[in-house]
Amino acid sequence: MKAIEFDSVTKTFPDGTVAVDKLSLGVENGETMALIGPSGCGKTTTLRLLAGLEDPTAGSIWLGESDVTRVAPANRNVAMMFQSDALYSHMSVRGNLSFGLKNRRRFWSRAFRSGSVDANSSPERIVEGIGSVAKRLGIEPLLDRKPHQLSGGERQRVALGRAMIRDPAAFLLDEPLSRLDARLAGELRIELRQVFRDLGKPVLYVTHDQREAMALADRLAVMDRGKVLQVGEPLEVYQRPVNLFVANFVGSVPVNVLPKALLASMLAPAGAEIFGFRAEHVGVSGKQEGAGGALSFRARVREVERLGDHALVYMDADELEGARLVARCDAETEFRPGDPIKASVDEERLMWFDASQQRIKSVAE
Ligand SMILES: Nc1ncnc2c1ncn2[C@@H]1O[C@H](COP(=O)(O)OP(=O)(O)OP(=O)(O)O)[C@@H](O)[C@H]1O
Questions:
Q1: What are the DSSP calls for 142-205, one per residue?
Q2: Is 44 in the pocket of ligand 1 (CB under 6 A)?
Q3: Which of residues 196, 229, 247 is at a domain's end?
Q4: ipTM score of the complex?
């Protein structure tokens, strides 16, 4: 039994838009699942379906053993956090934290009356949690401040604290770090990972930032046009993408793609039409001779993008019909536009795709 389960869920909006298409996905307790995919692929709708803010057109949604498909949002006990999570501006941090709890009390007292919860989940137990949640998130010193006296990152922490105090069955987060600057988002990402690990609850996390997803998630679900294309651990999806779309989406730089005809055909597996390789797998040398690898070609540097800890060298591969390719190099690389170079890629780094851009598995997989 999964803590969260979507069973063949479809959401068609009245105007005919199929936002989510026969989606099946399970998240375990204590697991952080990142939903990633391009804008409009159905990520937010998936979260809203789980929160009960949208009704599915077909399929069922489960939280543990409960079928919540038709359960009202207030009775689902999931906490949803958005990118622009609004705190109550007139309340202190403490007030904001306990506000969720006050609503919770109403929920719990109703639930107690109907006998559907056990005493371990009493409001008192949750009250005890406020202090520890504030401590856990490093917001104890801020308890008496108002939201306008907080930084963006601190506000996000309070919003998360408010969600944690409710002790929900599941956490749903929609781009919670997207409004923060890169450094702060990076710091919070590490903290969130630790918090999520300790919570022991399922976390469904939406982001369009593949880096954030790779860093935070135990598993990724890559979506396109309402469908889940692949679910797996970040490294597994990165190294063994099901198709070219996924390969491109989980990398920070698009995959270099070339037609099979440019390689000695004996290398290609049956059915292969195109092959690809990642920028970090291209070896680049200023020497014109001697570079090895399955694929070895002369090229000319078109542009060098210096990114601090590494550089991207964009090149025109004269020997490969002028294909435009990219290699990841050391930050100190001295290549300049116009330089002639020799590039090479090892055979085991090549990814092969068929005519419909599905990746062809290697014999070792
Ligand atoms: N209320 C609605 N009525 C009609 N279509 C909608 C509605 N809400 C969303 N959609 C459409 O459903 C599709 C999925 O939207 P959704 O917001 O889930 O995408 P997303 O992956 O979260 O996108 P983004 O990354 O841009 O936030 C889009 O084509 C969107 O235009």
A1: GTTS-GGGS-HHHHHHHHHHHHHHT--SEEEEESTTTTS-HHHHHHHHHHHHHHHHHH-S-EEE
A2: yes
A3: 247
A4: 0.97
